Amino acid sequence: xxxxxxxxxxxxxxxxxxxxxxxxxxxxxxxxxxxxxxxxxxxxxxxxxxxxxxxxxxxxxxxxxxxxxxxxxxxxxxxxxxxxxxxxxxxxxxxxxxxxxxxxxxxxxxxxxxxxxxxxxxxxxxxxxxxxxxxxxxxxxxxxxxxxxxxxxxxxxxxxxxxxxxxxxxxxxxxxxxxxxxxxxxxxxxxxxxxxxxxxxxxxxxxxxxxxxx
Length: 214
Ligand code: G3P
Fold this sequence. Notes:
The protein is α/β, with parallel strands linked by helices. The protein has a single domain (2-213), classed as TIM Barrel (Alpha-Beta Barrel), CATH 3.20.20. Helix content is 51%, strand content 17%. The protein has an eight-stranded parallel barrel, surrounded by seven helices. α9 links the parallel β7 and β8. α4 crosses α5 (88-99) and α6 runs parallel beside α8. The structure holds SN-glycerol-3-phosphate. SN-glycerol-3-phosphate binds next to α7. SN-glycerol-3-phosphate binds at residues 6, 26, 28, 129, 131-132, 163-164, 183.
C-alpha cells in the first residue's frame, strides 16, 4: 500500500519524507490556499522535492479548459498527475489525457458508480473522499471495498486512492479493503506511529538498560 501526504505545506512534506515511507503528494486548491503561498511557488517546490507522483488540480470546469491547464501543470515536472473533478467534463478530459499517456487523478468521488465511470475513462487514480461522507452521516469507508470489488470484477487498473482521511482508523480500514493508496494529512501520519504501550515499553527498556550499565 502506498502512502501519499495530503498537503501543500513543504515543511510537512519534508518531515513526512524523512520517515522514509512517503510515496507521493496530493494537493488541492484549498490546501494551496492554506499554505499561504502562490500556486506557482508551491507546485514548483513540491515537484522538485518529491520523486513520486504529485497531484496538481485543475480549476476549469470545461474539458478544453482542463486540457489547456493540464498542459501548463505538466511543465512543473515529469511526476505531475493531473487532478480532475468527477463531472462529465472531467471524465472527457480524463479520457483525452489518458489516451495521451498523461497520469490522472479523478477527485471528488463519493460513490462506487462514480468510481466505475472514472476507471472507464482511463483514470490512473480515483479519489473517494471518505471523511466528507462521514461528515454527512454516511459511513465513508463502506464504498472502498465496493470500489475494490468493482475494479477487480472487470480488471480495471485504476488505483484506489483513499482521500479525505481524518484519522488512523481510515488508514487501517483502507489497508484491509485493499486500497492501493491512502493520502494522509500530516497530523494523521503522526497519529499512525503513536501507541502509548510503545512509549511505556521503551521507557522501561531504557531504564533497565541503564541499570545494567555498571
Ligand atoms: O485532497 C483531497 C481530500 O483529501 C480533502 O480532504 O479533509 O478536505 O475532506 P478533506
